[in-house]
Amino acid sequence: MIKNLRSMFDIAVRAVKPDSTFTANRLKYENNKLMVLDEKCSTVGCLNLEGRNVFLLAIGKASLGMTESFVCSLPIDFLSRIRIARIIYPKSHSNDRSIISRIHERLSASNAVIDIKAFGAAPQNIPDAGSLAATKDVWTRLTQTSTWDPPPFLITLISGGSSALLSHPIDGVALEDKIQVIKELSLRGASIQQLNTVRSAFSKVKSGKLLSYLPNNSTVANLIMSDIVGNPIHLIGSGPTVLPIPGSSNSQALDIMNHFDCSEALKSVINTTERFNFESTVKNLSVENLIVCSNSYAIRAVIESAIKDPEIGFDDVICLTASYQGSVVNMVETLFKLVRQIIQQKWKSENYELKLTNPFYDASCEDVMMPKTVGITSMSPDKYSHEILLIVGGEPTMVVTGNGLGGRNQHAALVALEKYADDFNFFKSHEVAFLAAGTDGQDGPTDAAGAVVDKNVASLVIHSEELQSQLSSSIRNCDSYNFFSKLAEDFKVSGDENFSSPHIKCGHTGTNVMDLVFISFAI
Fold this sequence. Notes:
Blueprint: H1 2-15, H2 18-21, E1 27-30, E2 33-37, E3 43-48, E4 54-59, H3 63-73, H4 76-79, E5 82-90, H5 96-108, E6 115-121, H6 129-144, E7 153-158, H7 162-165, H8 175-187, H9 192-201, E8 219-225, H10 251-259, H11 264-272, H12 278-281, E9 286-293, H13 295-308, E10 316-324, H14 328-344, E11 354-357, E12 373-376, E13 387-394, H15 408-422, H16 424-429, E14 433-438, E15 450-453, H17 455-462, H18 465-477, H19 480-494, E16 503-504, E17 515-522
Parallel strand pairs: 4-5, 4-7, 5-6, 7-8, 8-9, 10-13
Antiparallel strand pairs: 1-2, 2-3, 11-12, 13-17, 14-15, 14-17, 15-16
Helix pairs in contact: 1-13, 3-5, 8-9, 9-10, 14-15, 15-17, 15-18, 15-19, 18-19
């Protein structure tokens, strides 16, 4: 089943790549209006350009792909309205030059005078000098649109990673100090919502502040690829061009820093910094926000493919939630407990049907992908094996201990391996396999998106006292990357024909809609 899980992850990532999000079928331009449609071709938004020229700004891990797909899906008469284009992307993208070249070529076809520039920055998703330079350039160019008549139409293409790419600290705070605070919060288990709230308080451009560089009466449309549970538009990419929530203040950031016991010096800066007075700075702005892609898009693609493709072989595919953001350890433990519960109750059910409470159900969460119960209704007494795939989407958190190397998805797989080894014969007999990976292709500061665990991986561990000891110490030290790297080497030495490295290494995917976790088994 391990190959099936890898295939499911590939399908999920392809479904949320920019060339699937922005296509000629999902972007229409007629009569001065830009229509944006979803994957079912239902209208998400209608943008009326009203004769305005366009400033195109793309930020995030998907910015290059979003820009290329956006400009290649729209006709020349729309492209001729673009006067300035700015792209800020993660510097480590391997094929960035070829993509940028294609963007230049497409925009040049409009014969309009376009100021195009792309900035590579923050290769490790940490703000750097490249981020500062790009940010200053963007706000300088936005200021220069004050001469445009009518005022500009700013179209932003925002995806995860924007917080690190568009960054400039407030006066009195060094970039290094801001980075240290965010690092402290991350290591102590802060959620992405909490991280971006603090980032915004320290920033000159986040939480709508970038809009202050626009002239009055400008129009803004944010096309957003969501990487946060619940799609909170003011927090995705730290919302640089989203109108701030009325009544928001720095006190929220201060509360978070107090909760996680952060630097006293920086808490003092936040406490004395006046709230950005957006209302008196920017007037008569029209801002529209459109979610064009999210975690649920990826999950729906997996469900559809797993059911339709007979070669994949799943009889039931169940999404438990697309909105998980709790402990990564609790998530794994809950999944293995649920799998055991389903297996043990198979023959106790009437008419070979099961209906169990979904342990991930949260009545307070608006998640259409989250059922209240887990229903398995297609079991047949005549079928030798009934194969099930359970899916969890979201962005788990973890408290980092020790000084190991890894990320939350690899750590999830490490904990899953421990669970597997604890009752190896049971889980092996039911072909249990587990995958956890980030859709952006990068889990923590590593070159892996995540990892996969199955009976072959677990077998290697239970037959080696040394590996069992290393597994326990790697969990304590959060050293998942090195553990799975060693495991891959041991597989090669063993000469096992069924060898497949536990690591998932797909490189930067050019998209980002949080994490996906799959667990499959047979009953």
